[in-house]
Amino acid sequence: PLRYISKLKELVKHEAEKNKSQWKTMGPAKVAVPSPNDFLQKRSKEPKLPPKKKQQDGKRLLPLLPPRTYHPVIHIKKNFINKNAVAVIKGEPKKPRHFCVDTRQGDKYLLEPSGLFPKYIQKKNYGVLPKYVTRRKEEMKREEEEYQASVLEQLKKKALKTLSEEERTNILKALKKKWEEINHAYQRLPVLTDTRYKRMHKEELELQLKQLEHDIDAIEKHKNVYIADV
C-alpha cells in the first residue's frame, strides 16, 4: 500500500529554510577583513559636540537679554593687609598664660591644668545648686506630702468613736438585764451535778456571768468609752 504523505510537507520545508539563522553555519563566519588604514585613533570614541553656530540665515545671533531681577556680581578687591591691621588694632590683647617653674634648670609647665590654679571657683555657677537636684527635691517633698495625707486619711477612717452618755447608759442597762437573766437561770440549776451535760451547762453560765461582770465593771469605772470603727 502507498505511504501517507502530508500535503503540508513542502510548506514546512519552506518555513524551516526561511527561519534558519544565518550564523548557524559550518566553519568560520565570512566577514570583511578590516583595512590597515582604519586603526583606532586617540579620543576617537569620545562624544563630539556639534559646532557652534555663529550665524543663522545670514544674520548674527545676539545674546539673550538678562531679566530685570538680575544683579551682576561685582568683585571688589580686598586689601587684606589693611584688614588684618585694623583687626589687630581693635582686637583684645591675648592674656598671658600662667606657668609654674619647679626646677633650677627652668623646667616649666602650665599652671591651669595642674590643679594648682583656682579654675572652678571662679566659675559663675560655682556653688549653685543644679536644677535637677532642686526638681528632685521638690518631687520627693510632694511625694512625702501625698503619703502623709494618705496616712492621715487612713487614720481618720480607722479613728475611734466616742460613746455618748445615753448610749453608755443603755449598754449598761442591757448588760445588767442580761446578767440578771443568766443569774436567774444559774440559780435554777439543780444542786447535784451528776451528769456531764449539767456540769458543762453550769460552767458555761459561770463564764457568761464572769464576762458580764467584767464588762459592767469596766463601763462603770470609765466615763469615756471609745469604740473602734471596724
From TrEMBL:
Residues 135-227 form the Enkurin domain. Pfam families: Enkurin. Residues 16-64 are annotated as: Disordered. Residues 40-60 have a biased composition (Basic and acidic residues). One of its GO terms (cellular component) is axonemal microtubule. It comes from the Eukaryota. It is found in: Cell projection, Cilium; Cytoplasm, Cytoskeleton. Keywords: Cell projection, Coiled coil, Cytoplasm, Cytoskeleton. Residues 202-229 form a coiled coil. GO terms for molecular function: calmodulin binding. The keyword Nucleotide-binding does not apply. This is ENKUR protein. It comes from Acrocephalus arundinaceus (Great reed-warbler).
